């Protein structure tokens, strides 16, 4: 057998492979059936016209050509990018702020930690319902407080320029999860560094910018990429805020389609208009967008991520 | 005397050196930190206070402007009305079945798979594990069109199978979490068991798993919390209303012309409370679960 040395398997290699196979077999089967095959199958469907019933008929690039001219597609993409560009950076800042607060050396810090973290594990659909009440112009708390301080009431869910801001605020309730990861990173910063900086007369702000921030940049990178991937698939809050299934089959998408996010539009194409071919094409474009965004962030991060020992 | 006095002064921290006043009105330095933390924590708690507040108002008090800051006439029967206004019992049963199924599947599959990626060294292992990790970053909605068609052809649509069955094949985040834990256990204990004649599955089941209970607990808790709040997959794969879990069923408070917001909040309270209780009981596991994901941050 002619093969590169690293592909040459020793007797022990083969034995280990045989031993490991039953353990990882469930993942291999599941990954193939529920991830790999659907991705490939979507690619095939994206070149067809298919209603979900009967046979898919070949359509060449028709779905992609239509997409380029579909104003709702572009609006949904724009809405999604607007939301992601706003929610992700704010989310990173809020998570770091929460982590710094969770890191305070106070007796009752566990209470603050619980208050910050618990909302992040609560069902998103329930949080959305709570926001519907919280942001209601009549019985909502937010507009009441705005009124108290003399600010005009905002029609958060009825005014197209505020609906996405509402979801950005809602998303911050989930910041407690990443905050715990940042907290672990803060704990890992060697105390000697702070001591040395203090001796040299560096104040708390300077210590944060010169020591803490550089050392937690790997976590910032992770949070940026993961947050972006979550951001481009935003669906549940928009779907619930806009009215959910209460429209009787026709899903409303918020004032002036302001809540028509990418996945919401994909969902409508597939399950309201039964245009599975077009929805599959949208799925593939989303796949490519997320891969490109992840790599772009990774490349950009080379300029600011601090790796230990570098 | 002088010498002794000097010695004590030196031993004391600097700010204690001048403290002649018997009664101290000094502001503790942590006060401002505490105020800041209380305000921030308040912002995170207020939505839930408002949920409970709205849940306990009758429909007249709910529509009063300005809103009342606490329920003046607590309408406790809202909770009873909330669970009878919609088929809450059916939705709750479905949520419990789905959550139990997903949790059992996760508890079985993830330790098994993670074991194969950590306690056995086989050629190509780290490359394949790279694929597992990469799949964490794949947006699930990319798959929904194809998955729906696949499950429709299997006649699984409108059953719980499309939601429960995939859990029996592992979840990349849970595999990562269990693998981290397994890698932290010394290899010698496996070696010893192998020398004693145990096969690999016996090593897994009788030697490693008993040691991995805390990590399995983390997987169980996170899987349950996730399944309880799952929205997209039930929306996609369940059509018959009698099969809806709570996440989809709550929409029915909005079916009629007037939305029963107070009942919706009462139901939301009932949905949120078990998770809060779970956190308070198993706090330790939640913290471990999240920080295990921190890599070598």
Report on this model:
- The complex is a heterodimer of chains A (310) and B (297).
- Chain A has 310 residues and is mainly α.
- Chain A folds into two domains: 5-63, no CATH class; 66-301, MetI-like (MetI-like fold).
- Chain A contains 14 helices and two strands, in the order H-E-E-H-H-H-H-H-H-H-H-H-H-H-H-H.
- Chain A is globular, with a radius of gyration of 24 Å.
- Chain B is an all-alpha fold and 297 residues long.
- In chain B, helix 2 (31-55) packs across helix 15, helix 5 (88-116) packs across helix 9 (172-183) and helix 5 (88-116) runs antiparallel to helix 12.
- Chain B folds into two domains: 28-75, no CATH class; 87-292, MetI-like (MetI-like fold, Orthogonal Bundle), CATH 1.10.3720.
- Classes of the chains: A mainly alpha (310), B mainly alpha (297).
- Chains A and B meet through helix 1, helix 3, helix 4, helix 5 and helix 6 of A and helix 2, helix 5, helix 6, helix 7 and helix 11 of B.
The major beta sheet of chain A can be summarized as: 2 strands, antiparallel
Q: Number of DSSP strands of chain A?
A: 2
Instruction: Say which CATH homologous superfamily of the largest domain in chain A is assigned.
Output: MetI-like
Helix content of chain A: 55-70%
Structural class of chain B: mainly alpha
**Major beta-sheet overview of chain B:** none
- Rounded to an integer in angstroms, the radius of gyration calculated over CA atoms of chain A is 24 Å
Provide the CATH superfamily of the largest domain in chain B.
MetI-like
* Count of discrete structural domains of chain B: 2
Order of helices and strands of chain A: HEEHHHHHHHHHHHHH
- Count the E strands of chain B: 0
What integer value in Å does the Rg of chain B equal?
27 Å
- Principal-axes geometry of chain B comes out as globular
Element pattern of chain B in H and E: HHHHHHHHHHHHHHH
Count of helical stretches of chain A: 14
DSSP strand content of chain A? under 5%
- Oligomeric organization of the protein chains: heterodimer
């Amino acid at each position: 057998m002619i093969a590169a040395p690293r592909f040459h398997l020793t007797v022990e290699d083969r034995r280990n492979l045989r031993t490991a196979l039953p353990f990882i077999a469930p993942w291999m089967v599941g990954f193939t059936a529920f991830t790999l095959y659907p991705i490939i199958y979507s690619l095939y469907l994206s070149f067809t016209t298919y209603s979900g019933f009967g046979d898919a008929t070949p359509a060449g690039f028709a779905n992609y050509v239509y997409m380029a001219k579909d104003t709702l597609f572009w609006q949904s993409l724009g809405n999604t990018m607007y939301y992601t560009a706003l929610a992700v950076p704010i989310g990173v800042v809020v998570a770091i702020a929460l982590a710094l607060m969770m890191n305070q050396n106070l007796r009752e810090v566990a209470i603050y930690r619980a208050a910050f973290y618990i909302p992040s594990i609560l069902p998103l659909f329930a949080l959305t319902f709570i926001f519907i009440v919280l942001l209601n112009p009549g019985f909502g708390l937010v507009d009441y407080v705005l009124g108290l301080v003399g600010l005009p009431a905002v029609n958060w869910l009825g005014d197209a320029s505020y609906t996405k801001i509402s979801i950005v605020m809602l998303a911050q309730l989930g910041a407690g999860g990443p905050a715990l990861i940042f907290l672990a990173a803060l704990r890992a910063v060697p105390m000697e560094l702070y001591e040395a900086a203090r001796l040299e007369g560096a104040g708390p702000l300077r210590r944060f910018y010169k020591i803490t921030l550089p050392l937690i940049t790997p976590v910032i990178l992770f949070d940026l990429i993961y947050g972006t991937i979550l951001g481009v698939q935003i669906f549940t809050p928009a779907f619930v805020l806009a009215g959910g299934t209460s429209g009787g089959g026709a899903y409303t998408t918020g004032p002036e389609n302001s809540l028509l996010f990418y996945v919401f539009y994909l969902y409508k194409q597939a399950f309201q208009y039964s245009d599975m071919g077009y929805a599959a094409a949208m799925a593939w474009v989303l796949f490519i967008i997320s891969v490109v965004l992840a790599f772009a962030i990774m490349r950009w991060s080379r300029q600011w991520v601090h790796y230990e020992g570098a | 005397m002088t010498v002794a006095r000097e010695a004590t002064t030196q031993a004391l921290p600097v700010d204690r050196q001048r403290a002649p006043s018997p009664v101290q009105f000094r502001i503790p330095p942590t006060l401002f930190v505490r105020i800041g933390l209380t305000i921030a924590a308040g912002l995170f708690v207020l939505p839930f206070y408002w949920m409970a507040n709205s849940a306990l108002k009758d429909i007249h008090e709910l529509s009063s402007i300005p809103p009342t800051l606490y329920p003046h006439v607590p309408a406790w029967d809202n909770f009873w009305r909330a669970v009878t206004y919609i088929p809450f019992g059916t939705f709750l049963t479905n949520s419990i079945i789905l959550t139990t199924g997903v949790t059992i599947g996760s508890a079985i599959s993830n330790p098994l798979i993670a074991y194969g990626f950590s306690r056995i060294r086989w050629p190509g292992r780290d490359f394949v594990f790279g694929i597992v990790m990469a799949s964490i970053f794949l947006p699930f909605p990319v798959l929904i069109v194809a998955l729906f068609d696949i499950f429709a052809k299997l006649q699984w649509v409108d059953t719980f199978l499309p939601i429960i069955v995939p859990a029996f094949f592992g979840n990349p985040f849970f595999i990562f979490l269990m693998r981290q834990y397994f890698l932290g256990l010394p290899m010698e204990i496996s070696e010893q068991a192998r020398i004693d004649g145990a096969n690999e599955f016996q090593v897994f089941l009788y030697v490693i798993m008993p040691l991995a209970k805390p990590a399995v607990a983390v997987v169980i808790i996170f899987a349950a919390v996730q399944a309880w709040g799952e929205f997209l997959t039930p929306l996609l794969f369940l059509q018959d209303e009698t099969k809806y879990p709570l996440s989809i069923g709550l929409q029915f408070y909005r079916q009629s012309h007037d939305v029963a917001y107070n009942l919706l909040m009462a139901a939301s309270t009932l949905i949120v409370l078990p998770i809060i209780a779970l956190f308070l009981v198993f706090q330790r596991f939640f913290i471990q679960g999240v920080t295990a994901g921190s890599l070598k941050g």
